[in-house]
TrEMBL record:
It comes from the Eukaryota. Belongs to the multicopper oxidase family. SUPFAM superfamilies: Cupredoxins (SSF49503). Residues 31-145, 157-299, 380-521 form the Plastocyanin-like domain. One of its GO terms (molecular function) is copper ion binding. InterPro entries: Cu-oxidase-like_N, Cu-oxidase_2nd, Cu-oxidase_C, Cu-oxidase_fam, Cupredoxin, CuRO_2_AO-like. Residues 1-21 form the signal peptide. The keyword Signal applies. This is L-ascorbate oxidase homolog. It comes from Acorus gramineus.
Length: 551
């Protein structure tokens, strides 16, 4: 190949947002269908991927290119999003309704993204309507490259544990409830890898361990609303990673896993050979729901003890557990953060955004909001409207301020698209204030951030005195306890349109989310990839010519 041809090929790859050939490719074909499932013993319609519930695990390595051809055999539009995958320079692949036109029934679309400079435990899920409530989710792991050492010996095996609360209704019924202006109420149960484990006659194991060996468990809360406590009968959990960052390896009896979060632990089979029970149970609720699963020591037929460990009680325990988490600053790992952000405590904050959640009846229907604005999806995805230069026909920037109203719980709620502008590469402080009585969990697409503090009551500038400005764990999802606040710091260096959302899916669906537009003034491939050639177009941009590509 001549040098000129090689350069042309490289530019074409860059313009399509593709990685060069030295990074391996993983190819998948997904047939997404309805199917009858009975996770709580009651037949209901679920969403299957290649006939599987939960969906297949994606097992990748840092910098792999993941190519997934999704065939939508449902009767509704569909999108998938990749919780925690940052899509550097490539929000075209984020799979949220604000960035992508949906895959229409009877059609297919191919996602192509790179797990650039990331390691850790993640999951994918359907981001449209209430599809997530009935399946379509699965684990997504990103292993370190062989040349990059991990801060623990190779485990004997690697297990994915997907936990979450569950409703025994189909997604259309749940959507009708919300569209009518009502709340979904309490879930019907909790699942662990698609099963409840309670009352099952068969006690077949979910996982098997050999005595004396150590195993890697990746626990993700893929549920709808509830924080869950995870524990294993008779065994300790050595925390080694969360949301894509290696941690100081503290030992825990159990972990509170909030909606949208993933934790990796090492478990050593150092007990008497027999069966042991994994438990995931609801936290901070008046009701108690749980799921169980059996871990069997190889060669043993001794059943598990009937005495199961109880979950901790109260908020204080969970607060203190959060404060015990520390980033492992000595571990080798892929790090997508800009140079200097490991010393984030020395970077000047250029802007503070306070976001306060609320819920009220609007025109006879329940809506949830951030700073008094309840998000609704326009027919034209925000990213496409912005890219094609017709944003003014779809949304207005900065319709909310950086401060909530003084009494946000009583403030009037407006409904429509909500987009905040963030200056490219600014270092910004975001404070989530929760004046309500229920716990909140927030996720930011396209980034990891430093959760530097949380506390009761209202945040004030004095709260910064108690920030962890050294080794907060870089992650993508953070909880906010009732009548409390949580603060995060990050550099907005990833150009694109990115979703901040409540991971409580009812609240997300009814408006507790917004998008942040991060535009590079250079319009350069250095900062953002061009729109993919296969990108579906809809709404106002359906028939528009594509703008000039970035160079």
């Amino acid at each position: 190949m001549s040098q000129a041809v090689a350069v042309a090929v490289a530019l074409l790859a860059l313009s399509a947002g593709l990685a060069m050939a030295e990074d391996p490719y993983l190819f998948f074909t997904w047939n997404v269908t309805y199917g009858t499932i009975s996770p709580l013993g009651i037949p209901q319609q679920g969403i299957l991927i290649n006939g599987q519930f939960p969906g297949p695990n994606i097992n990748s390595t840092t910098n792999n290119n993941i190519v997934i051809n999704v065939f939508n055999n449902l009767d509704e539009p569909l999108l998938f999003s990749w919780n925690g995958i940052q899509h550097r320079k490539n929000s075209w692949q984020d799979g949220m309704p604000g960035t992508n036109c949906p895959i229409l029934p009877g059609t297919n679309w191919t996602y192509h993204f790179q797990v650039k400079d990331q390691i850790g435990s993640y999951f994918y899920f359907p981001s449209t309507a209430m599809h997530k409530a009935v399946g379509g989710f699965g684990g997504l792991r990103v292993n370190s490259r062989l040349l990059i050492p991990v801060p623990y010996p190779d485990p004997a095996d690697d297990y994915t544990v997907l936990i979450g609360d569950w409703y025994a209704k189909d997604h259309k019924s749940l959507k009708r409830v919300l569209d009518s202006g009502r709340s979904l109420g309490r879930p019907n149960g909790v699942l662990l890898n698609g099963k409840t484990g309670l009352g099952e006659k068969s006690k077949s194991p979910v996982f098997t361990m050999e005595a004396g060996k150590t195993y890697h468990y990746r626990i993700c809360n893929v549920g709808m609303k509830n924080s869950l406590n995870f524990r294993i009968q008779g065994h300790s959990l050595k925390l080694v990673e969360m949301d894509g960052s290696h941690t100081v390896q503290n030992i825990y009896d159990s972990l509170d896993v909030h909606v949208g979060q993933c934790y990796s632990v090492l478990v050593t089979a150092d007990q008497e050979p027999r069966d042991y029970v994994m438990i995931a149970s609801t936290r901070f609720t008046r009701y108690s729901l749980s799921a169980t699963g059996i871990i069997r020591y190889a060669g043993s037929d001794k059943p598990a003890s009937s005495v199961l460990p109880k979950a901790p009680a109260g908020w204080g325990w969970s607060f203190n557990q959060f404060r015990s988490f520390r980033w492992n600053l000595t571990a080798s790992a892929a790090r997508p953060n800009p140079q200097g952000s490991y010393h984030y405590g020395q970077i000047n904050i250029t802007r503070t955004i306070k976001l306060a959640n609320s819920g009220r009846i609007v025109d006879g229907k329940l809506r949830y909001a951030l700073n008094g604005a309840s998000y609704s999806n326009p027919d034209t995805p925000l990213k496409l409207a912005e890219y094609f230069g017709v944003a003014d026909r779809v949304f207005k920037y900065d319709t909310i301020g950086d401060e909530p109203a003084r009494n946000v719980l009583r403030a009037h709620i407006t409904v429509g698209p909500v987009v905040l502008n963030a200056t490219f590469r600014d270092f910004i402080e975001v404070v989530f204030e929760n004046h309500e009585k229920s716990i909140q969990s927030y996720h930011l697409d396209g980034y990891s951030f430093f959760p530097v503090g949380m506390g009761p009551g209202k945040w004030t500038p004095e709260s910064r005195k108690n920030y962890n400005m050294l080794d907060a764990v870089s992650r993508h999802t953070i909880q906010v306890y009732p009548k409390s606040w949580s603060a995060i710091l990050l550099t907005f260096d990833n150009a694109g349109m990115w979703n901040i959302r409540s991971e409580n899916w009812e609240r997300q669906y009814l408006g507790q989310q917004l998008y942040i537009s991060v535009l590079s003034p250079a319009r350069s491939l250095r900062d953002e990839y061009n729109i993919p050639d296969n990108q579906p177009l809809c709404g106002f941009v359906a028939d528009l010519p594509k703008p000039d590509p970035y160079t």
